[in-house]
Structures are given as C-alpha cells and as structure tokens.
Amino acid sequence: MTALEYPDGHFDAVVCVFGVFFVPDMEGLVKELWRVVKRGGKLAITTWGSDFFEPMYTQYREAIREMRPDLYSAFNPWDRITTIPQVERLLHNGGVPNPVVEAEDSVQPLAMPEDWWTVALGSELRGTIDVMEAAQAEQIKANNTAWARENAVSRISTNTIYAVGTK
C-alpha cells in the first residue's frame, strides 16, 4: 500500500478505510494514494474519532494490561489522527489540497453486554484476542461483560472521521 505498482492517475477513486494509521509514514502513504488518483477522481480516507469503542475499549485495554501485559500497548496507531484538524493536516501534508473532512458521532447499540465481545471479535482487537490462551480470552470476556452489565452499558461509541479529496 505504501509503494503501489500502478502508474500515476490510474484510478477514478482510491479508498482507505481505517488503514492509514497503521503505517509509520502516514503522509507518505497519502502521497502515494493521491498519486494514483486520476484528475477529477477522489481519495477517501476514514479513521476513528477520539472515543473509539468507549466506554468498553478502556475496560478491554485494562483487562489486557492486567492479564497479558506483554500484549498491552499504551500507544494505539489511530490515536495520531482522531480529530478533524489532525486529518486535515495529514491530507494537506500528503499533497491533497482542500479536502472535505467531517466527523460523525455515532454509536453501536448493544442489545446485551455480551454483544461487546462480538464487536471486539469483529474488529482489529481480535488480533490480540487470538494470540492469548483460550482461558485468558474467556476471562477477559467475562470481566468485560460483567463490567458492562454492572454499568448498564447499552452502546459503544463508533465515532468516525471521513475525509475526501478531489483531484
């Protein structure tokens, strides 16, 4: 994704959904994605907002830190671009003039506390879960579910930032 083997202006649209923050050089990635967009084409990038999966994400991370400190990281790649100004700056520095950047505050309802674990397994959090022993993952699931039940958690934040540049 950081060194595409396509000629300049090859695509009408390039879309990067929740991926730009995984590369160390985000500006370099934006430059590369922008390079392969045709004149009149679009580059669209999404990232998480500042309250990603809260309030459950904090509980999940604390459970990981306690049970498997070797899998805990105080740094999350998406923390680098969780605001509109940060995303605007990223696109500008990546060569995209006048991007349209908007935030959407949204939530994912949880019909029951166990739904949180379904969300975790369907997201990038699964990578951490999959490297744990099954008993450890079950304990973290039980702890998270109990906390959600005790605190009447009925939804999690799924705030998203959308950015589109037109060439």
What does this structure look like?
There is one protein chain. With 167 residues, this protein is an alpha+beta fold. It has a single domain (11-166), classed as Vaccinia Virus protein VP39 (Rossmann fold), CATH 3.40.50.150. Helix content is 37%, strand content 22%. It is built from 6 helices and 6 strands, in the order E-H-E-H-H-E-E-H-H-H-E-E. The strands form 2 sheets. It has a 4-stranded mixed sheet with strand order 1-2-6-3. A two-stranded antiparallel sheet has the order 4-5. Helix 2 (56-67) packs antiparallel against helix 6. It is elongated. The mean pLDDT is 95.
Strand content: 15-25%
Query: What percent of residues adopt helix (DSSP H or I)?
Result: 25-40%
Helix and strand run: EHEHHEEHHHEE
What is the CATH topology descriptor?
A: Rossmann fold
Structural class: alpha+beta
User: How would you write the strand order of the largest sheet?
Assistant: 1-2-6-3
Name the features.
two-stranded antiparallel sheet, 167 residues, 6 helices, single chain, alpha+beta, 4-stranded mixed β-sheet, Rossmann fold
Topology:
Elements lengths: L10 E7 L8 H10 L1 E12 L7 H12 L16 H10 L6 E5 L2 E3 L5 H7 L4 H6 L2 H17 L4 E3 L2 E7 L1
Parallel strand pairs: 1-2
Antiparallel strand pairs: 2-6, 3-6, 4-5
Helix pairs in contact: 2-6
Question: Quick summary of this structure?
Answer:
This protein has 167 residues and is an alpha+beta fold.
